[in-house]
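Query form — protein Methyltransferase domain protein

QUESTION: What is the three-dimensional structure of this chain?
INPUT:
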Amino acid sequence: MTWRPDDPQGNEAAKIRWEIVPYTRGAVVDLGCGPNKAFPHFIGIDSCKDTALFGIEMKPDVVVEDCSDLSGAVLTESCDAVFSSHLLEHIEDYPAALTEWWRCVKVGGYLVLYLPHKSFYPHIGTAGANPDHKHDFEPVDIINAMRKIVDAEGGWDLVERQQRNGADEYSFLLVFRKRAESGCRFEHLQRRQPKKSACVVRYGGFGDMIQTASILPALKRQGYHVTVMTTPKGQEILQHDPHIDAWSIQDTDQVPNALLPEFWAYQAKKYTVFINLSESVEGTLLSMPGRVSHSWPAKVRHDMMNRNYGEFAASLAGVPFARDGKFYPSPEEDAVAQGKLLAGGINLLWALSGSSCHKFYPGQDEVLASLLRAFPRCRIFLVGDETCKLLEQGWEKEPRIVRLSGELGIRDTLALAKRVDVVVGCETGVLNAVAFEPNRKVVMLSHSSIENLTKHWVNTVSLTPVSLPCYPCHMLHYNWDNCHQDGLTGAAKCQRSIPPKSVFQAIVTTAIKAVA
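ANSWER: The structure tokens for Methyltransferase domain protein are given below.
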């Protein structure tokens, strides 16, 4: 469109904010933020001159004399991104301002510029033009200025160049990524729009991402170019999955929860299919505190939520369910995992706890002692986060038990889980990661039923609580408010009610089969 005087004025950044999400993670300054920062995590910087000129109330995080000089406000290469919307055209010496802004960007970071386009906005001195504008810009003007900066300050990639004149926009967007190497590269010119594209959205834990991975091969078989939208934690788990072509990464709460529906609706327009698996388990098949379903009678919850997680995800994606969810280690990770194994004996990995208070088994020490007696030649790996070191206490002098909690990263843990003979644990991401692997599994269920979780798992023994009316509760637990805690062990009653003898027998049976 062309600018119209009767269109809503101000808050130009709101028009572009969903486009800039991939480039504005981490430490971001919003130059000339005015009264509205584009996102809450931005550090708003403004001179507040519009307060004196137009009476606009502003409360930036940092007040400067002039946004073209940030020397007293922003350290060199301290920003993951510098964002500026409709500011540069107000600055007389704009090449100097660009040089100053570029100084603040880290190598690998972004300079994100949103500016009125000369072809769509009144020229200086004509009717309707902003009287404070010093320049009428086209994208080439900014690119040429940035070329001169490269000579002194290193190189850049131009990753976005968009003409924005739909709806109520009359602007253009340029995004430069800073490189240590000299020279200019125009990455946006290399981009080709695939004929069939799918975006799969999932923000979740390790197990959630492995479940998400189960639909990716089916999408690839149908010819889709697959983008996964997730957090850095989710990307870490799936980063070597061969069925992923591209990533859309957001930091946790980078887009506030209340704005996610609007953000997703905007992003969905870019893809042939948009598959949102957010809350496909939590909130849907596991009730969450604060939701109405959390107060339903247990029978109603069970009737409504006793559905297989993997099958439900496949239904949302519109693909057939398949046992495709896997973790893909790098060759280096796999080699390290193999180097830890005991040759000629039984290798067992025990995932000590999950992300919720009910996901640890209180009878582990009794089972471990029995295993050491049953299998003189064995190696048992205990894995978990730093807090799981408490659960490892007492085994410091037993050489057959390798205490790795807090020592292995999640990827190294999952690589090792793929290689051992037997994997044991509660409902954790580690068990999800090997659900369809050929090695043997023993899982102690808590808030999920066999139908929910392990129905399709291969070589798996699923142990369920004995004579416990609250199982399966189909509820998420962040504390003990709605989970029954055993007073003797401090564990959930659902885990306390699974006899150690049953766990030991299941492991012995699976271990013998694993090495047969």
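ADDITIONAL NOTE: Residues 500-515 form the longest helix (16 residues).
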